[in-house]
Design brief:
The protein has 8 helices and 11 strands. The protein is α+β, with helices and mostly antiparallel strands. It has a 4-stranded mixed sheet. The protein is elongated and about 100 Å long. It starts with 5 loop residues before the first helix and ends with a helix.
């Protein structure tokens, strides 16, 4: 989340034409495209940086703000508004008091630590830029509340990850964004959780779904089997004559409900009845006998 030189990202200088920006983006996008670099995290990161640079420099309005304000380009409208207010205030003082400019430093000096003042003598401060980050976690990582240390802009931040957080959910860490300008408050840090798929369990809000293999004999005669849940193993009873794709529900064995202590969804188990293979002659004879009985 440090400041990124978008010109450097595209291998250009600040005098680059629109065509040069477009050509550089297309060339680099082809080079680092995920389809050409499968499972290459470094190329994937580079591809995202290239797209971000193009979104700023490829848009004439955004590029103008970026060239003028650098890392604070997203606050350009705030800066322009403050400058207009300063000009109006000076004009008002000239009219009302009958004297000229009172020696206020201009807008850019105030932006970088000058002494631009209001009627009340207070410096104009601007809120820092908000930071946005993604935190990739596995399904089991968000089953229980736990703490993690993140490094943001060179600083370590200890955060609590609540149990039951959803894929795509975002939380705000107040005051951990970009530094305020001219004494203004810091921006905030927004963390988006990307909860990756689990090979065993599928999550639907607070419920979990899984498939369990069941041998033919237990399916026909019933019995007791051990199945895995996200929090360990449990024993369950299988009813006689259980059909393939039959589903049972284990109440309270699903996912924790976000910010509701000791409240859980359910676990749904679908049985996959497995037919025996490599039958012996005796087994084939018994199945033939059973077929005759039916």
């Amino acid at each position: 989340m440090d400041f990124i030189d978008y010109y450097k990202t595209l291998g250009l200088n600040k005098n680059a034409t629109e065509k040069e920006i477009k050509d550089a983006y297309r060339k680099l996008a082809r080079k680092y495209h995920p389809d050409i670099n499968p499972n290459n995290k470094e190329a994937e990161h580079k591809f995202k940086e290239i797209n971000e640079a193009n979104e700023v420099l490829g848009n004439p309005e955004n590029r103008k703000k970026y060239d003028q304000y650098g890392k604070d380009w997203k606050h350009a409208e705030q800066f322009e508004k403050a400058r207009r207010q300063q000009q109006q205030q000076r004009a008002y003082r000239k009219t009302a008091a009958g004297f000229g400019d009172s020696g206020y430093s201009d807008f850019f000096e105030s932006m970088f630590g000058g002494a631009f003042s209001h009627q009340g003598g207070q410096n104009v401060g601007f809120r820092g830029q908000d930071y946005h980050a993604e935190l990739h976690l596995g399904l089991k990582d968000v089953y229980k509340t736990h703490k993690r240390t993140l490094t943001v802009n060179g600083k370590n931040i200890r955060i609590a990850i609540p149990a039951g957080v959803a894929n795509g959910q975002e939380i705000k860490i107040k005051g951990h964004g970009g530094p305020g300008i001219n004494g203004g408050p810091n921006g905030d840090l927004y963390i988006k959780f990307v909860v990756q798929n689990d090979p065993q369990f599928k999550r639907d809000r607070d419920d979990l779904y899984t498939t369990v293999d069941l041998d033919l004999y237990t399916a026909l005669l019933g019995g007791e089997i051990t199945v895995g849940t996200i929090d360990g193993k449990v024993k369950i009873k299988v009813k006689p004559e259980t059909q393939n794709n039959a589903r049972v529900k284990l109440k309270g064995k699903g996912f924790p409900v976000y910010k509701k202590e000791n409240l859980y969804g359910d676990l749904y188990i679908t049985f996959n009845v497995k037919l025996p293979t490599r039958l012996s002659a005796k087994e084939k004879g018994l199945f033939t006998e059973l077929k005759g009985l039916r």
